[in-house]
Every structure is written in structure tokens, then in C-alpha cells.
Predict the structure of Dihydroorotase.
Amino acid sequence: MKIIIREAKIIDSKSPFHNKTADILIKDGLIEKIGTSLPNTENAEEIKLDNLHISQGWFDSSVSLGEPGYEDRETISNGLNVAAKSGFTAIALQPNSFPIIDNQSQVNFVKNKANGFATQLFPIGALTKASEGKDMAELFDMKKTGAVAFGDYNKSLDNANLLKIALQYVQDFDGLVIAYSQDQNIKGNGVANEGIVSTKLGLKGIPDLAEELQIVRNLFLLEYTGGKLHIPTISTAKSVQLIKDAKAKGLNVTTSVAVHHLVLTDEKLEGFDTRFKVTPPLRTETDRQALLNGILDGTIDMITSDHNPIDIEFKKMEFDMAKNGTIGLESAFGALLTVLPLETVIEKLTLGKSVFDIENDTIAEGAKANITLFNPNGESVFAKSNILSKSKNSAFLGTPLKGSVYGIVNQNQLIVEK
């Protein structure tokens, strides 16, 4: 592949070309030359797009696809194509398929399914067998096969001793443990944030305490064991402060927040629309502002779409009975630009690669071409026609977005919507 990307503004704080507009010559998957008015002497394909900006390829640390077992929700092939067109050159795949990705053969299966795509897939192995929270899964074998972390998707581990042992065990091979934090006993039968909205609507509430108490416990365990811990998709103001305090103490902890928690609040539930039923639940405006501040001050390391396709029959039902989850790849960038500055968005969509020990390529001559192409300007309203996923359960339908994604260059492939 030979391409020249014309007149692109480079947004990459690690690049010597940061904030400069230049042409980029890419040959055989590598950036050969960056400069102005580069000659096209080898009949390379030229890419010239309106207000073109480029950055390091984006990484999403939490994507569910369904396959194997739930191909009606999403397949790996279509999911990777959706990710590419949404600007992501890499995704971490959650283990919540059927069967659960809890052994070497399952890691191999999803990796083989992802061969040949522009977007790279990095599996997360289940922390416990079948994600049941009883026995530790084959962590070392999965690490050898390519698992980048270990966690049970949206399941909090009740057994504190098992998490303690896991944190100690993975240190032998520099493993990363993911600890979703929500105390199930305190959550009980709750389906929405406990507060004014849930009371008004007559919905059972999930108190902030359910998340915060579990985070405190997990941080105490990390302090005792050492090792690396990632706490995903936090949602409350106090959770941000707890992580901030833990980092100040020197604990090796990272955290993420989902796009929908940065943009939406529990007020969206007033129509009982199950598209807004997610876990953790949408919180208050106070929490949303605290999460945004946590992004800006560096407490929160990364942003995820937490893309989770759900069959329509599990969403089109009573709110109490509907499954949690929203798709989010297609709307992530445009939604984030409505609440955060461009450079912050790019930083938080790329920083996760270093946390998950994934190659992080800067935009420089001689580097691998791992690039996202986008336009930060322009406004639109997210519509069904913008959904590329097989499932349509988007919490962002009808939401104003800013900017647009053109595509990616990665794995010696160009995926661009012109």
C-alpha cells in the first residue's frame, strides 16, 4: 500500500510534528516521509479530505462483540469494521461471550477470527472460570496466548481473598487485573441511580455506595498485594476522589470512564427508555461534572465506549427486566467533543494502550502507520442511519454530536469514508 495523506493537521503531543499541517507518505505500513507538498513519484493513492486532522490510532479498552455464541448481537468481523470506521485502530475485547473467554483455546479462537482486519483485537481473559467468581481461570496460559488483562465483565468479585490471590499471582508475569466495582448486596434489585429521578419514577435505586465501597475494598487489597489494578467505568464523584487519593499514595491503579457517563445523566430515564439502562447506572449532573474534572486533572486515565450490543428482544421490555448496555463505538468521538477539548479527547482515547501494554506508535518518520483520520468541526444529530453495528441499542440516538470520523490507517490498510 502506498498513500499520501494531504494537508493533515497532526494532533500528537509525542510527535515532533504536533499541531503542524503536513503531507504524510505511507509505504508498506510505515510512515516514510512527513513534509509539505510531498511529490507523488510512485503513483500513490492520495487522501485529501475537508479539515483533515490525524492522531495516533485510538484504543477502546472495553468492547463486547458477542461472538462466539451471541453472533446475533454482533460478530467479530462486523464489530472490527465498525471500530475501524469509528476511528479505533485497536480494541480490548471483553470475555462475555458464550463460552466465556477463560482459557487458552478461547483466546486463540477470537484472535484467529480477528486476523487480517485493520483494527487489531486484544482479548481480555476472564479472571475466574466462566466468570462465576469461584475459581481463578487459566491466567498465565491466556497471557502467553495474547490476553492483555484479566477481568469478569461487569461482575464484581465478592470473594476478596480470590482477588488478593489474583493480584499476587499475576505479578509473576506482569499481568493486569481488572476489577469492576459494584457491591451486589448493596445494589440488590436496583436498576437506576438512587436519587430524585429513581424516586419520582418508582424505580429501585442503586446507591453510589455500591460502587464506592467496592472500590475502597479493592484499593485496600491492591495496597496489601502490590501489582497492577484497573478499575473500569467509574461513575460517581466520590469514586474519582478515591482513585485520586490512591494514586497520591503511589498505588499502581488506573481507571476508565464510559462516554455515556460523561455526556448523559439519570434524567434521561424519565421516559423509561431502556436504551439508557446501563451498568453502572447513569448518575447525576454533579457526578458527571466530577468525572469530567477527573479527566481534565489526570485522575481518570482513559475513556471507553463500553460498547455492549444487546438483542432488541432484551431491550424492548419493561425497564426492570431489560438488560444493561449500550453500543457506543460509532458515537464516541462526536459525543466526547461536546464536553471536552479535542487534545484531551485524543489523549484519553490513546493513553490506554500503555496501560494494557499495547504498542503505541507516534506520528514520526520511520514509525508504523497507526493513525486515525477525523474532522473536529461540524455538528450533527446521531441517527439510526449512523449505526453500523448489528444491534441498535444506542443511548445516543437523537443526541447532538460534534465533528466526524473519516477512518483509520493501520495494519497496512486504509479504511476511509470519503
User: Anything to note?
Assistant: The longest strand covers residues 371-381.
